[in-house]
Amino acid sequence: MFKYFPHTDDDLQQMLERVGVDSLDALYADIPEAVRFRREYNLPEALSEMEIRHLFDTMSNYAVGGPLTVFAGAGIYDHYAPSVVQNIIQRSEFLTSYTPYQAEISQGTLHYIFEYQSMMAELTGMDISNASMYDGATATAEAVMMAFANAKKADTVLVSATLDPKVRRVVDTYAKYHGIKIETIPMKDGVIELSTLNAQLSTIEGGVAGVVVQQPNYYGIVEDYTGFADAIHEQKALFIVNSIAADLAVLKTPGEWGADIAVGDGQSLGIPMSFGGPGVGYMCCTEKLIRKMPGRIVGMTKDNRDQRAFVLTLQAREQHIRRQKATSNICSNQSLMALYVTIYLSVMGRQGLRDAAELSYGGAHYLCEQLEQTGYFKLKYQQPFFNEFCVTYDGDVDTLLAECADAGFMAGVKIDDHTIMLAVTEQRTKEEIDELVETIKQIREDAA
Fold it and tell me: How far from the centroid of its chain's Cα atoms is residue 84's Cα?
């Protein structure tokens, strides 16, 4: 039997001193020896919070048939969040928070939005963050509209072929109803090349308003965007980088790549998968674009008593006046999810984020090696990847994924009839990875 004791020896001593005794034996002195329980518990060694949770989840799953062990990603990731995040966010003053229509009355809401903005600006390496967006896809589409509004005549936005297809569909929908032309930058071996971009920038009739890329891209590859910003800015266009937020703990930030706008989804910052949502979109930009940014921005000032106060520094007021002619109609944000991200980032800290990212990276590369060693898989793209990668499979992909699911594993996302994309986060242990690989071997042996 397993038990979890949260108290240290120092904690116990402080409690004993508070009640006026010097030991546990003294605390129970009035209980007769004959009725005392003397059994010795076989307790395991100390475990981390994540290991404790995993242990009890495993035990409960044996009894009731638990959820699948997730090796799928494609935009939604099974990251760990410390228990304190859920506990704080469930406080009534946070759980019931919504759009602050009478903004300055909602000082608590404005305060955590301000902290969220500060952390996201630092994480992305950008000057400014807004109060958050609905999700990463709409944030990217809004960035495309920003580029279009910023351009004097250009009406075309170039979008990388390695952008998440789900995000691309949202971008296409927005563009259709705002008169924006979308052209695709073709990929080669899972990445786009600067030479291809340059050719398109110089030949697009009417000019280019913006360029959208993803880092890591949809296939998990870490692309090299050296020279992209210079080429794009030479054409007076905006450089838009969509990123998985958690990966920026170790990867080069959009700001370091020279991006004008950084967008993406913050679900990877500890937000539960919840069958695909909700997440939280983030949008950050350079200071010169602050007045073209949709949504709202919270700032800090002092009130008439010289005390710190938070206010809505900017909000897109034109949306209330111009309506359908406005650059953007976004007037709210994912406030509760922004709070979740704020608590997660403050609890994890810079080193915690880096540790989680490095564990994810190491686990993904270990899984890739083990799959290739089975002889059934081959890495599809010979490019550097982070915690997600594509492999070609020499059998039937649908059958493999279905049989892995029966065995308790969500073993990736089908890309095409011969390709599976797998993801690993810090939640996945070496034992789980080995078990998945052994399960696949057994499936193949049974089919032989």
Answer: 19
- Do residues 244 and 77 lie in contact, with contact meaning Cβ atoms separated by under 8 Å? yes
Evaluated on CA atoms 276, 280, 285, 290, the torsion sign reads: positive
- pLDDT digit string, tens, across residues 365-395: 999 999 999 999 999 999 999 999 999 999 9
Encode pLDDT of 123-140 as tens digits: 999 999 999 998 999 999
**CB neighbour list of residue 290: distance below 8 Å, 6 or more residues apart:** 127, 128, 297, 314
In order of 104, 117, 235, 306, 317, the CA distances from 301 in angstroms are 11, 15, 38, 9, 20
Q: What are phi and psi of 105, to 5 degrees?
A: -75, -30
Considering only CA atoms, which of 181, 239, 175 is closest in space to residue 210? 239
What's 289's DSSP letter?
G
Q: Strand 281-285 relative to strand 296-302: parallel, antiparallel, unpaired?
A: unpaired
d(CA 158, CA 293): 20
